[in-house]
Model the fold of this input.
Amino acid sequence: MADRYPLVYNPSANQLQELQSGDSIDLGGGNIKNAVFSGIITATGFSGDGSALTNLPAGATPNLDAITSEGSTTSNTISVGGITAATAAFSGSISVGGTITYEDVTNVDSQGIGTFRQGVNVVGHSELDNINVSGVSTFSGRIVASATNNTIPFLYNNLSDLPLASSYHGAFAHVHSEGKAYFAHAGAWVELVSVGAAVTSGNVLVGTGITMYTNSGIVSATAFYGDGSKLTGVAAAGSGGGALDITSSLFI
Done:
């Protein structure tokens, strides 16, 4: 049987011609309906219902520059350069290898646990009911809490564990090995005097007139008043041994 070639209309020659093997047809925006092709069709793009296509590669991943869908579209895997959508709903998990940027987000509703590996930067006023922090938290501003039963331990095991007093002026600390409390002032940790506990360093000042020297046991004052009958090593009044005038019953 001889080869058969389709007839096409050539408007420039105003005649019908046979379409030779290897030639192409430019439809010029027209449509072909109910056509059967036994060869290969090549096009810059295909649009329409592809549900009746057969012999598609199993597990193939289509790479598309743009997708326009009307209705419901089901696909195992779609790889695209970018997606722009008004809304999206996902029934499964979403894995993001890059960065998710939220612009003008009003509310984020998370029913589970949110994990932030590089930290959370909160700008403005935020209200949180309960926070469980396992690491170190640094606050550059003020910490304001309600006047209630707040529990904030200021415990350090040793004096050598205390931070620089010049960096934390006004800080309070309890040193367990010393059994004492200290506060940071003027670049140093100052020991607080407690009832019944000995002062092991420095001197104790009472006002501006009394000094108790902790190392020597001497108490100095601008004046002493009261009963001096139990004092020793001093000259009594009228003995000529000194200028100190002490009687057994002197009260001022």
Summary: The mean pLDDT is 75. DSSP finds no helices and nine strands in the chain. The beta strands are 7-10, 15-18, 155-156, 172-175, 180-185, 188-191, 203-206, 210-213, 219-221. The radius of gyration is 47 Å.
